[in-house]
Amino acid sequence: MEFEEFREMLESKRLADVKKIMLEMNEYDIASLIEDLPDNLIVQAFRLLPKDKAVDVFVNMDDEVQRSLITDLTKKEAKTIIEEMFTDDAVDLFEEMPAMVVTSLLSNIDKETRAEINKLLKYPDNSAGSLMAVEYIHLKKGLTIRESIARIRKQKDDFVSYDSCFVTDDKRKLLGRVDVKELLTNDPDTLIDDVMEKTEHMIDTMMDQEEVANIFQDYNYTSLPVVDSEGRLVGVITVDDIIDIMEEEATEDMKKMAAIVPVDKPYDKISVWETFKARIPWLLLLMVSATFTGKIITGFEDQLAAYTVLTAFIPMLMDTGGNAGGQASVSIIRAISLGEIEFKDFFKVVFKEFRIAILCSIVLAVCNFGKMLVIDQVTPLIAGTVCATLCVTIVIAKLIGCTLPMLAKKIGLDPAVMASPFITTIVDACSLLVYFRVASLLLGL
Predict the structure, then answer these.
(1) Distance in angstroms (rounded) separating the CA atoms of residues 193 and 207
(2) Are 307 and 439 in contact (CB under 8 A)?
(3) What pLDDT is attached to residue 276?
């Protein structure tokens, strides 16, 4: 369905045709189609959807559109949407809304839903508690498969995890999980105690969402139980939530690695002013830190005056060193985020990057030596000075690139902060110091 055609149908009040088209579409496609409409047309189109489909469409909309739409709906319409949403989705909606709007919306919904939302809102941001769904089915030990299936049918609206159910004792303490496959293939009179499996992993409500995502990724779970400090089942996290978290964490790391303060909005929703505020802090810091490279060059003006040809190779040395350090830092940051390496692997990582640096520096130095003799037509002594500096610079850059992210992680900082821009500035200064020191030794400056 073409966007312009759809918009024209709404503006011309061909509402029956619009409704027919949307009823034949997937909820995600409907959300993608209508969220770019003007606010008044979004509301108009949304009201044409039946209640059950409207909730699914709403959940698939962009966060900004959700917040705008929920305030444009009547209190009755908003109440229906919020009460039909899974609680974790409702919490995501409320977290970024003004307190007065949240209070107004919460006062309009039923007590049970309000209590569940308020409970989740009290958990720290980015914790498992704020991420979990509190709509789930738990089966008590001692039930037969027949009784368990009857319970599932009775609470079918709370069935957020379609592959398994969790088993608890009378005090809701988690005992294990039972696959739906076992419920369908075993004798109805079999006790679920006999077919349940011990839960190898359970999530604490205070666990960081990135750690939760790593567990899902490492063990290929589709759902995991969330327990409180006493081991009582309080919620469930499903893989669809984790996909959103992984995308969010990856985006945040990419922005930090590009020296941008992360902003929780899509690019096309961020104003010029917000984008400016996100980028300028690091640009200012990097600009000021780059002053050191200028000071180093100024300090060696006499040596450069004696061999002006050396000046021509400064950009190449700085760029190559920065690129070498960037390669190492990005590799290490990604490995840390995936849980592939920890601080205990520090010396192993350093030794590996050192060997890589030696191989890279030899190949680059040999190629650069030939290039300088043939193309730049400098003397072998000048070429040797530059290439010796290149070797040392690459080794230093690789070591800085691999160690800084690991040290940052150890002291509680985000390793992504120690990415290419920051490391490049450090390596630039180091490469210049090495360059002039090697030149002094080999050329007698």
Answers:
(1) 29
(2) yes
(3) 81
